[in-house]
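Lesson 9: reading folded outputs for more than one chain in a single document. The general rule is that every protein is listed as its sequence immediately followed by its structure tokens, and records are never interleaved. Here is the first one.
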Amino acid sequence: MTYQFLHRPRRLRSNPIIRSLVEENYLKTSDFVLPVFISEEEKPSEVLSMPGVFRWPISNLCEQIKDWHQKGLKAFALFPKISPELKNEGGNEILNPNSLVCRAAAAIKQLNLDVVLIADLALDPYTTHGQDGIVDSKGEVDNDSTVEILAKASIVYANAGIDWVAPSDMMDGRIKIIREALERNSFHNTGIISYSAKFSSSYYGPFRSAIGSSMDSVIIDKSTYQLNPANLLEAQRELALDAEEGADILMVKPAEPFLDVIKQARSQSNLPIAAYQVSGEYSRIMAANQLGWLDWKSCALESLVGIKRAGANIIFSYFADRLAKDL
């Protein structure tokens, strides 16, 4: 029997051409920032917990940037794994104008490619304790002294050719202080991508291993400064404060577990919204692929288009280089 239905939504799905015509959200290479791990090692080394992701020494990094650029990727976020002897409790290596990040930025800029370089502003790669800030005598992360060193680091990075600094520490008031420091030093065009709603998540483990900030058999508790995953209203407040303090782009991290926060950020602000598809999101897909349970590419694309559908303009993703040719 054939019914005379007035509405048959399947007509819009009947063939690939029609599906393409009515597609509401789609991914393009210009949506992506590729996170790049850099190291002092002599040759590239794969991050064991992130199959297909490598730490790149500067000697190999430039050729890799050229390759990624040819694929259409033009924005890169640098994350260093520094030598243990350069770490201390205060994370002072972040202020070294000849640090790994600064040398990498200078080398990339010499390529004269149209790329944007983003530097993470946090102390966890540089501290012996793995916290994102300076730990006081009570064992607590000191907000204001951490903000002071991050503001100084923003000037070091801007001098090195970094285009955007990305404070990922979640200290109170740091966007205002960093913006004022950049303005005082005439870095008016150096932008701030603020990790505004960064949650105290269980998805960061592979990243901490990649940069060497994890502690053997010790769980680093960052819940006194990163957001409670249960709290949406608190995230809204953080997003509003960072916008008020001068952030150019607001970020939600992690991405897929917090799609509602991305949607809320999009609805409450006229600033661009970034989302970070973090290491744990990448690794769970790749691990399931290795076990033959899921296809990594289709799952990655589905996850990423969901992040964009939620309202993200910019997506930090470790899949970006692998998927660029398919976008």
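And here is the second record, again sequence then tokens.
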Amino acid sequence: MTALNITRHGWIAYAIAVATVVLDQLSKLWILHGLDLPSKGTVPLPGPMDLTMVWNRGMSFGLLNGDAGWSRWLLTGFSTVVVVGLAIWARKATKPFMAVGLGMIIGGAIGNNLIDRVIYGAVADFIDVRDLYFPWIFNIADSAISVGVAFLLLDSFLTGEDKLAHPTE
């Protein structure tokens, strides 16, 4: 263990979290202020992707989607608890896939559910791949969370650490 009892892979997880937040927030700054997507609605791109502005006030797939101010702060509080829990877990990360997965999830949660909700009151979504039959519009933080979960699952399968199936081991 290194300084503050954080493993080398823990530091990697934190670095990936920071990089994810930076990429997510820079993309949103460009979408909102550089491209001014909110005033344009949709910008068609060549290929199967467009840029379409959507403000998501709820959770995934529109759950808790509404104008109630309490839902914004409920989701912000819940995300804070999740980020803190994952950051504590990341301190002890010992494997590369675990570190990558935790870092991506932490960064995505900070970018979407903490920064966006506090600053804008909603999450700025803009990646539109409906031409690929994916009906939801998302952003870089959403992608990071999804890919991060895949890395954690891959880590679990590769190392055989299925604690849910074998809780007594």
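What the second record shows: The CA atoms of residues 26 and 160 lie 37 Å apart.
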